[in-house]
């Protein structure tokens, strides 16, 4: 039986990053396989691994590589399944690998996670597979709870070791806090969208419309509205919580990209990030990609709303033959131009 996930390493030296992914996949009870193949030194091997794995219905690919990390992009060239890229810190803080992975052309997106974040790659893979698997969704929830409890317990440990004369240890004890459930009203959501596109501001709509055009071509229902989690925090939370039919989010945001950060804090569904900027800048890309453990954002290239739409389509195509057929037409026709 084919595994759900295949991990491909560009080098055996990247095994310590793969082990982070393996640990998470074991916890989530997701079947996987591991291969070592270089995009540059064994290109034909990568090609055959990807083509045969796609035919065998492997659902998600994870490509792990450093330096000029073309492995995730090479994987994306030979499959219409979701590809997650993990850049590895070998030189210059891993930025060379990060940009090589994330800045992919249309229509070959790589959902890039943070540098050395094999764990987040596996969690994102679990979120993608969990769209159609309730047991895995439950395992994701349990895993997220463990991260939450770790944060709560860390405060207790820190406070127990502090002995300042003016320290008020009992102020706003987190276990006694009552969360305010009153939220701003929002315009009613029409229909049953499968994808939510959320631009952080009206200036991001140019990129958001590119995403929408792809989803229109794929005949995928979506909802799109501008809501800032900074300017309208409670309204944003209410919107996210009411999207029962939505399978994933595509967040489009510039500057410090608070939209993606807010989404992963509120939802366990997959989040695709599209950084945008009028100039080539690092703030939006880095703040989307370099998320802490447990809250991955699958980030595509700067201003590449079309690749955000393709990646969302790849995820939904895992369980929808019509979307898969439309996706193949776009991906493989474009490749043959």
Strand order of the main beta sheet, please?
2-1-3-4-5
Question: Tell me, what is the CATH class of the largest domain?
Answer: Alpha Beta
Q: Which outline best applies?
A: globular
Give the averaged pLDDT, no decimals: 91
CATH topology of the largest domain: Rossmann fold
Summary tags:
Rossmann fold; 44% helix; five-stranded parallel beta sheet; single chain; 337 residues; 2 domains; alpha/beta
Structural features, described:
The protein is α/β, with parallel strands linked by helices. It folds into two domains: 5-130, 3-Layer(aba) Sandwich (Rossmann fold); 195-335, Rossmann fold, CATH 3.40.50. It has twelve helices and ten strands. The chain has helices at residues 15-28, 43-55, 71-77, 95-102, 118-130, 134-160, 205-217, 233-241, 258-266, 283-289, 305-316, 321-335; strands spanning 5-9, 32-36, 60-66, 83-88, 111-112, 195-199, 222-224, 248-253, 271-275, 298-299. The strands form two sheets. It has a five-stranded parallel beta sheet, with helices on both faces. It has a five-stranded parallel beta sheet with strand order 7-6-8-9-10, with helices on both faces. Helix 7 links the parallel strand 6 and strand 7. It is globular, with a radius of gyration of 20 Å. The relative contact order is 0.13.
């Amino acid at each position: 039986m084919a595994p759900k996930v295949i991990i491909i390493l560009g080098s055996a030296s990247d095994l310590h990053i793969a082990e982070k992914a393996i640990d998470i996949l074991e916890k989530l009870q997701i079947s996987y396989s591991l291969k070592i193949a270089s995009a540059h030194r064994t290109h034909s091997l990568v090609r055959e691994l990807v083509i045969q794995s796609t035919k065998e219905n492997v659902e998600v690919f994870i490509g792990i590589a450093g330096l000029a990390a073309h492995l995730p992009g090479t994987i994306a060239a030979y499959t219409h399944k979701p590809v997650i890229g993990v850049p590895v810190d070998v030189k210059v803080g891993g930025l060379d690998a990060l940009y090589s992975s994330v800045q992919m052309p249309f229509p070959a997106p790589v959902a890039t996670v943070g540098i050395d974040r094999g764990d987040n790659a596996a969690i994102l893979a679990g979120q993608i597979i969990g769209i159609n698997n309730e047991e895995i969704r439950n395992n994701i929830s349990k895993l997220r709870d463990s991260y939450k409890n770790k944060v709560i317990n860390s405060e207790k440990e820190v406070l127990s070791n502090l002995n300042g004369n003016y320290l008020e240890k009992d102020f706003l004890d987190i276990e006694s806090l009552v969360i305010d459930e009153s939220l701003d009203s929002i315009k009613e959501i029409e229909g049953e969208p499968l994808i939510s596109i959320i631009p952080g501001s009206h200036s991001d709509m140019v990129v958001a419309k590119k995403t929408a055009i792809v989803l229109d071509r794929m005949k995928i229902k979506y909802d799109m509205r501008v809501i800032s989690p900074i300017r309208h925090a409670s309204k944003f939370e209410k919107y996210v919580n009411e999207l029962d039919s939505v399978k994933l989010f595509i967040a489009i945001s510039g500057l410090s990209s608070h939209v993606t950060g807010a989404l992963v804090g509120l939802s366990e569904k997959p989040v695709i990030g599209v950084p945008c900027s009028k100039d080539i800048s690092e703030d939006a890309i880095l703040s989307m990609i370099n998320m802490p453990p447990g809250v991955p954002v699958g980030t595509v290239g700067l201003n590449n709303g079309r690749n955000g739409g393709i990646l969302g389509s790849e995820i939904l195509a895992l369980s929808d033959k019509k979307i898969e057929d439309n996706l193949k037409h776009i991906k493989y026709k474009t490749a043959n131009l």
